[in-house]
Amino acid sequence: MLPKVDYAIFADTGWEPESVYNHLDRLEREIAAPAGIPILRVSSGNIRNDALNPDHRFASMPLYILNRGGQLGMTRRQCTGEYKVKPIKKMIRKLLGYPYPTRVPKGVFVEQWIGISTDEFHRAKDADVQYMRNLHPLIEMDWSRPDCVRYLASLGLSDTPKSSCLGCPFHGNAQWRHIRDTSPAEWEDVVEFDAAIRKGNARANATGNTLLGEAFLHRSRVPLSQAPIDHVTAAERAALGEDAASELEDGVVNGCSPWSCRSEADAVQDDFGLTA
After folding, report:
1. pTM of the predicted protein model
2. Chain Cα centroid distance, residue 18
3. Mean pLDDT score, 105-118
């Protein structure tokens, strides 16, 4: 058994699926509060609104780019640092009693647990500041994803959703299908957003930094409403194995978390690996 934690922190991008917010409310009400564990919700803003607001500074999402000459690329990924890591660091500094810009003394730090299982040990990373030390208890306990699923099921939490922005470009086809097939309103939302960012985020356009090509949420670089999301690619099967590919067909979805955000390679693309 793991010892009791002092706090749980949820970094809210403002654009999570409704199922994630509902699940967080349930965890707080039924598990965290009775155990005396405060859940602290932190945020740097609403990533969807910020992307469409020409007056707001925006940390770019990793959009797929089709340049005028047909070259494939991606915009820089800054969203994880801005909307997840930054507000968590701000809260941790506050909890330690050294809010920015006060210097945190040497030797003062928190231990931060990150729930990466043995299946994805390569995503386990250290924090980039001395006042935070990342620990990965699932790896230390040799727990795989199936172990976690079985444990959640034993607690009546088998319907636990994974946290990620609704319009994250790193979604695989399974997650796009899951949104389309289970939440029509959220699907309409991401389709509208995809169309709205075709020329990049509004702030960049307002300052004259327009794209040379067009931006898309789906790796196929076509409008999301037309993207081939019903297809489980050969690349997905080869990279993930038959069991994982079957899970994709069943609608298992991928998540995003600070210090372990998925990369373009993790999204299992079809040879679209060029960066802008």
Report:
1. 0.84
2. 15
3. 96
Average pLDDT over residues 26-44: 97
Sign of CA dihedral 53, 39, 155, 170: positive
Q: Quick one: tokens of 5?
A: 């934690």
Rounded to whole angstroms, the Cα distance separating 75 from 275 reads: 7
Q: For the segment 67-78, what is each residue's pLDDT rounded down to a tens digit? A: 988 999 999 999
Strands 64-66 and 214-216: antiparallel
d(CA 128, CA 152): 31
Burial class (CB in 10 A: 0-12, 13-18, 19+), 31: middle
